[in-house]
Specification:
- The complex is a heterodimer of chains A (110) and B (112).
- Chain A has 110 residues and is mainly beta.
- Chain A is built from no helices and eleven strands.
- In chain A, 0% of the residues lie in helices and 51% in strands.
- In chain A, strands 2, 4, 5, 6, 9, 10 and 11 form a seven-stranded mixed beta sheet that branches. In chain A, strands 1-3-8-7 form a four-stranded antiparallel beta sheet, with no helix packed on it.
- Chain A is globular and about 35 Å long.
- The model of chain A has no long low-confidence stretch (mean pLDDT 94).
- With 112 residues, chain B is mostly beta strands.
- Chain B has strands at residues 4-6, 11-14, 19-25, 29-38, 45-50, 54-58, 61-66, 71-76, 85-93, 100-102, 106-111.
- In chain B, strands 2, 4, 5, 9, 10 and 11 form a six-stranded mixed beta sheet that branches. In chain B, strands 1-3-8-7-6 form a five-stranded antiparallel beta sheet, with no helix packed on it.
- Classes of the chains: A mainly beta (110), B mainly beta (112).
- Chain A binds chain B through residues 31, 33, 35, 40-45, 48, 50, 56, 58, 90, 92, 94, 96-104, and chain B through 4, 8, 34, 36, 42-46, 49, 88, 90, 93, 96-105.
Amino acid sequence: DGGITQSPKYLFRKEGQNVTLSCEQNLNHDAMYWYRQDPGQGLRLIYYSQIVNDFQKGDIAEGYSVSREKKESFPLTVTSAQKNPTAFYLCASSIGTGAFFGQGTRLTVV
Amino acid sequence: QKEVEQNSGPLSVPEGAIASLNCTYSDRVSQSFFWYRQYSGKSPELIMSIYSNGDKEDGRFTAQLNKASQYVSLLIRDSQPSDSATYLCASRDNQAGTALIFGKGTTLSVSS
């Protein structure tokens, strides 16, 4: 089955800790994206990558980092510099049409 | 004006009625528009795309685009309780490659 897989589904982070969210796709899509969604809010773009080994900051990149070493993978690291990381994180990919989403990772700071 | 703007609702309609969801946009976005449905606690699901002025129909869904007035709408005919969800309007961000910029979504409630 083709699709986008995010893991873990739920993640708990302690104060001052870095955590990495996984995103893997087998759709052969060139472009991949990370969005953040807060309650009652739309999706906000964190980072995007149009092609392997290249990525760009979105509207809210501060406190986050990414890599794109393989076409299939686009992991997101939430660093300790992100002061309010509790949110629903969504990874997506596209091939020029609308984007398709993984099932999301819900991150909570404890 | 925000790049993509939606009325947050909630929009309440009885079962079998037509639900009309609206979205306005600014010059920051391209002329490609997408409607997503998001159930509570789930990720968004693409349900319609529209690129040209006019109407596009797919089953019970009709997307309408009016470039002169900068609005796009989604009509849901014969609304069902299973249509109860948040509907997100999105378009390509001219400043971010192929990334989409989203409205905050309109919550639809269909009562039986």
